[in-house]
Design brief:
This protein has 339 residues and is α+β, with helices and mostly antiparallel strands. It is 29% helix and 26% strand. The protein is built from eight helices and 14 strands. The strands form three sheets. The protein has a seven-stranded mixed beta sheet. The protein has a five-stranded mixed beta sheet with strand order 1-2-7-5-6, covered by helices on one side. 44% of the residues are buried.
Length: 339
């Protein structure tokens, strides 16, 4: 593999992304020395509390897909990155890079979708920027979205808060976004429709923090790299083994069938409306009951537990057949341009 130039897989959220961040980006800008210390949003001290700040860029193709579009995706992604550090959005930006010749009615439709999602989530798009480039410089539309949020006063989240015996929760079935986008892109059809899970999860994180406060130790939305990447990051960051029970992971039969047909691992497929939370074991049952009241988390489940501290931590999956296999950080990108 060419190690001197950027590859598409560097954007996949897996090991190559982590290497690019830790070996090139962070040393150049003077950021944290270890990429596993990074969270979805930075937390900044303010005179009367803490603020969270995040930014992301969206390049999904196709621009519209079952269950969402690039406009809704940009808003959900930004809100979710704030939510998993315990913050409620105060304001957002949308910056557009538009290809010359782009259909204005399509642009209007995508931005209307973004505005509707922001309003529904209680967020406000307060600033932005627009650039138009020639046809060879952009594939339709790129959106950059940033957000600032106010951190919940009870939020005490971080790798260092994760303890042996903690429960690991997942808010619903995996891979719905990645497989919905891929099926649309490839023109695939199945007996049941594949629909992206694209949604804002702020209501879920807020409900957990309101009820349990510091008993919630870690939260993440498993986007690029899917659950596999999230668990690998958690294990390394907390320096603890994790045990996940395959039969406890909520399943979407159509997603699993599509993944098998395409030779993909559902654990590594992208999600855009799911929550992974780690909290004290004694709170797990009540947490599931709370999450299950929300439409987007009706199939929430405890999928595993945090193990002992380790200098060489592993994520082990107890399979439905009774065996065990190690869940590793995905290397590159299984599904290109899914966010």
């Amino acid at each position: 593999m060419d190690t001197t130039h950027i590859q598409l897989a560097h954007g996949g959220g897996g090991q190559l992304t982590a290497d690019l961040i830790s070996q090139v980006i962070l040393p150049a800008i003077g950021g944290p020395q270890h990429s596993h210390q990074l969270t979805d949003a930075a937390t900044l001290e303010a005179p009367h509390g803490h603020l969270a700040f995040t930014t992301d860029s969206y390049v999904v193709q196709p621009l519209e897909f079952p269950g969402g579009d690039i406009g809704k995706l940009a808003v959900c992604g930004t809100i979710n990155d704030l939510s998993v550090v315990g913050a409620h959005p105060l304001g957002m930006s949308l910056a557009l890079v538009i290809q010359e010749g782009f259909e204005i009615e399509l642009l209007r439709r995508l931005l209307t979708s973004a505005g509707a999602e922001a309003k529904a989530a209680g967020a406000h798009v307060v600033t932005g920027d627009t650039k138009v480039v020639d046809r060879s410089a952009c594939d339709g539309l790129i959106i950059n979205s940033s957000g600032v949020g106010l951190v919940h006063p009870a939020a005490r989240l971080g790798f260092d808060r994760v303890n042996e015996g903690d429960a690991i929760l997942l808010s619903g079935p995996l891979g719905e976004h990645g497989l919905a986008v891929m099926s649309k892109r490839k023109g695939l059809s199945f007996s049941a429709d594949l629909v992206s899970d694209c949604a804002s999860i702020g209501q879920l994180t807020a409900a957990l923090l309101e009820e349990f406060g510091p008993a919630v130790h870690f939260m993440r939305d498993p986007t690029r790299g899917g659950l596999a990447a999230t668990l690998a990051e958690l294990s390394v960051g907390a320096r603890r083994d994790l045990e996940i029970v395959e039969s406890s992971i909520p399943a979407n039969k159509t997603v699993r069938a599509a993944a098998e047909m395409l030779g993909l691992d559902v654990l590594a497929a992208a999600n855009e409306g799911k929550l992974v939370a780690v909290l004290e074991a004694g709170a797990a049952a009540k947490a599931i009951a709370i999450l299950s009241k929300f439409k987007i988390a009706r199939r929430a489940a405890v999928i595993g537990a945090v193990g002992a501290a380790s200098d060489d931590p592993l994520v082990e999956l107890v399979t439905t057949a009774g065996g065990r296999r190690v869940v590793q950080m995905p290397y590159g990108e299984e599904l290109p341009r899914i966010c």
